[in-house]
């Protein structure tokens, strides 16, 4: 399994409808441990769950989409890393939407942690529903705030290395 030139990431986004969903916050962590986190200025519609569970947790100064793209480009550089995310279809699509007409600095094929977990015989639903218990069983130490994009990204990294 690939261990290097990976970028683990997670986003919180406005909707599960890929036609309207956009990134509200994003966390990236390299296999070297270097991290990036930002929150994006967004005033469009959000679904009820996001209103209740995500918006109150976003407390940083918000940046524009253009600046977010710049920050990701700078962070990633030119090594064309492979993205890893949990249930990556949303995060990756919304990341592509953020980049728009800009060239993407990461490789096209991403790795889905959820698929890897299924292949390893792990129960993804249980992981999602009771993360604290689940990661303890996997032998992962530390506190991770669920639905904080940076903590979620950190956990993606921990789980990825644990199961591969
Ligand atoms: Mg998340």
From TrEMBL:
One GO MF term: nucleic acid binding
Gene3D superfamilies, A to Z: Ribonuclease H-like superfamily/Ribonuclease H
UniProt cross-references to InterPro entries, sorted A to Z: RNaseH-like_sf, RNaseH_sf
Name of the protein in its database record: Uncharacterized protein
Naturally occurring in which organism (per UniProt): Berkelbacteria bacterium GW2011_GWE1_39_12
Organism lineage: Bacteria, Candidatus Berkelbacteria
